[in-house]
Amino acid sequence: MTQEKTPFPSLAFDEIQSGVFRPRPSPYAATYIFLRIDDRKAGRELMRRAAGVVNSSADLASKTEDAWVSVALTFEGLKALGVPQESLDSFPPEFQRGMAARAEVLHDTGESAPENWEKPFGTSGIHVIIAAVAPGKERLEAILVRGRKTYEEMPGIKAIWRQDCYALETDKEHFGYKDGIGQPSIEGTGIPGNNPNELPLKAGEFVLGYPDEMGNNQFPQPEVLGKNGSFMVVRKLQQRVADFRRFLKSKAVSIEEEELLAAKMMGRWRSGAPLSHCPMHDDPSIAADPKLRNDFMYNEDDPRGLKTPIESHIRRMNPRDADVIGIPRLHRMIRRGTVYGPSLPEGVLEDDGVERGFMFAFVGAHIDRQFEFVQAEWMNSGEFAGRGEAKDPIAGNNDGTETFTIPQRPIRRSLAGIPKFVVTRGGEYAFMPGLKALLWIADLDN
């Protein structure tokens, strides 16, 4: 009998944190907790306890494992734990510097600048990030009780920040769009992606220690620390829902036109149905089909953006096969978004003073060419697609002077004066160690 060849390296699922690969349940509740390490010995004991609490990716198909805890460390956290200098030096420079120091690259300026961030974001005091996910609040609190035992009543460990989040069964965010539709397929995981036209990406795009799309296999040293880890980018983004509603109303003469403009700006109807399949009218049946709603490309069917505008949000975040500068496959990420704050009631056009928005978590192996590239080149510039300095009409760092162009016949339409609808309230770069790495850190004796 001829042995079947394995087309890709086997993944060490029992070492990789569950939060990297596992799709989130729907609906779900989540929370992010930041910890500060004031005592190195206590911090290392925390890592030992965390290794017994953090879920692995060993059984991704099990529905009984739909609640989990993930742990990530900032660069300042690695230093607080006493990770040797030669290991610290082996981490990528953007991770070492941290998100606040990369603000200009990320277009986090003006209201979104680090000096305006919610504290403790952007400070050296965030060392450990705990993320917990469960199908509901009751289940979430149950696993948090288990998680809190890893740090509560430990001298030298202090909880300094918490953000509770949630995702409704509709998966809609505060602007009203269905979220979480476009996730990549990853070789060796058995988890299908959402787009049947996209070939699975190499596991090394998301987990360190495996070949990536460029054939590289680099990771922080030593191997026990870096392999099977991932980088996580956390962003707290405030959404100005009332401003968004007023903008649409000011540019439309009817509710139907408002919805069309909202769809053109996003690239999808708020139901989740893509403009590629229904460019002029929403089709809930397409939105309800998990395969069909992501089964489209751009180059052959819509090169000029007559269906899905080239400057729209989803076409920027994943150009698929469109003609752009660069290779879209090198900039894919696992993207998790979770709503925080109460919804603004339907029809309300004035801000109620309550903060609401999104907690984003991006998972990948390359902060610079994944998150940073997309944020700088695709979201906040149009050069990659020949659109000059045009920014993302929904999530870009707009200031009221930008214009969004909608290609149409006989004359294209321009929406001028786009204000800032999304404000960065804070963010951090973190490293999600493999389970063996947590124990390696715990056993350091320097």
Question: Can you walk through the features of this model?
Answer:
A hairpin with a 6-residue loop joins β8 (402-406) and β9 (413-418). The longest helix is centred in the first third of the chain and has 14 residues, at 40-53. The protein has one domain. With 446 residues, the chain is of the alpha+beta class. The radius of gyration is 22 Å and the shape is globular. It has 14 helices and ten strands. It has helices at 18-21, 40-53, 75-80, 85-88, 93-97, 103-106, 137-148, 223-226, 241-251, 255-266, 284-287, 313-317, 368-379, 435-442, and strands at 28-37, 68-73, 128-134, 157-167, 230-239, 334-340, 357-364, 402-406, 413-418, 422-432. The strands form three sheets. Strands 2-3-1-4 form a four-stranded antiparallel sheet. The chain has a four-stranded antiparallel sheet with strand order 6-7-5-10, with no helix packed on it. The chain has a two-stranded antiparallel ribbon with strand order 8-9. α2 (40-53) runs antiparallel to α14 (435-442).
Give a brief rundown of this model.
The longest helix is centred in the first third of the chain and has 14 residues. It is built from 14 helices and ten strands. A hairpin with a 6-residue loop joins strand 8 and strand 9.
